Amino acid sequence: MASKIFMGDMPELMESILNNLNNEIYSLYSCALVNRHCCKMSIPILWQDPFSFKQNSLFISTYFSSLGEDEKLALKECGINVKFSKKLFDYARFLKVLDLLLIKPKVMQWINFQHVHPEPSIQSIYRVVNLLIKLFIESGATLHKLIYFPNDEINPETFYVLEQNELFFSQLRDFSLEMELSFLSIEHAIKLLRILEKNAKKISALKFVKFDPKYELQLFDSFKCLIKSQEQLRKFSLIIGKEFHARYQGMISVLECQKNSLQELMIENCGYSAEFEKLNNCKILETLRIWHCDTKLLKILNCEISTLEIVNFELNASTIIQILKKSGLLLQRLKLGSLCKMLEEESLLLESLKRFCPNIKYLNIMNIGFSTQFLELIYNLQDLQFLTFACVDNIPEEELKIQVIQFAKILPLTLQYLDLKSFWLNSYMELLLNNCNSPLKKLLIYQLDNEKDSKALIEFCIRIKTLNYVGLDRYWIFNDNNRKKVESYVKLIPYERIVVNC
After folding, report:
1. Cis link prior to 494 (omega < 30° from 0)?
2. What are phi and psi of 161, to 5 degrees?
3. What is the pLDDT of residue 216?
4. Could you name the domain of life of the organism this protein comes from (predicted)?
5. Residue 68: is it exposed, middle or buried by C-beta count within 10 angstroms (0-12/13-18/19+)?
6. Which of 10, 227, 379, 449 could cysteine-pair with 410, CB 3.0–4.6 Å?
7. pLDDT tens-digit profile of 324-347?
């Protein structure tokens, strides 16, 4: 079977395998070296999103190897006199992801590598940026994702090329407009929104970030027109500055036109508004993410949610319970983050979760007491697969040890991922591992800094035989001898590399 794949007899299967490696740059490079067929399939995937890779900017020369004579003359006028070798592929046409915030620093770095003297002006840098963007457009590339920070970098000629090229945005699936700073060009943003309204009808994820109150109503109107023009919008994110708070200019109301397709809503810094009642007409809305918003919004929503994420400086259980009751058995993923204080009416919340939402598979809960009631909730969640929590240890030492043992024993046999954000639990790691029978695949802890806990982890690996990764918040704090012993049983990696979010 493997030989048939690499001989090219099963191209569809091979392409599917390689697409699953789209973030594994070194694996894709290895595949590209196998044979000509694998090279032709791997290279386009490698070059879908090169600006996001943590690599130097020399790859930009590969793009410029396909420039025409006029464009090469433009580079020389910027002080860049480089000979580009002819390449096997037209790499520019493989681009699928374009984050305009990343292009300028990469171009500046590339120019520095060319040892240009005198140092190029900002206008020269902008000119090179525009040459690069025009190259993508004219090569026949079709974007799938665009993150746009409007400013004066993109010149009128580039916008004209965009307007004339219907192909470039025809397959766009994910678009973010991020108006975070006051110097950004609203005229350019409106111009791009109108181009997208005309040429991009298949966007499934839209994000609107707006922090500066000086931006005009015209910007909102253009974005609303883009929403209306979409065939099937599934995900919408609205992040606004606190100074707006309740002024959405109809941005929420217009989502009603996507009521048959909208599945996920993410809002941040939003206050209470009657506009949100329109969301009750979005019958298939299943994911709701609310960050630093007025939680009264939850009281006017009558949706059955399967994924609920609420993060605020303070959380009151009474404002959350209504939507928990409504979602009930449908709720499978829940994140509750109280950033400053313990959850208010904690007992009421835990009882409601236990009573109404037994089918939760992912639970992330912050600033809650390590209580008997919390343990009862975990015991009741017999389908739980992912657990992240930060508990407060407000009970005596001996009782705490008993509860840690109880907690370890009642962890369900479905649990695969455990993230212990409570630093104090690190002191009880040996107790927890020695009494845990869950077939964990990933364990995330603060640090592993003594021989006793290392031994307990090794014994857990031998006994359970499922643990693949241990993520350490303080990855660098580790005795070399203990590290070698532990790594013969399980892979140790930095915490952020395996963290799973709601």
Report:
1. no
2. -60, -40
3. 63
4. Eukaryota
5. exposed
6. 379
7. 999 999 999 999 987 666 677 889
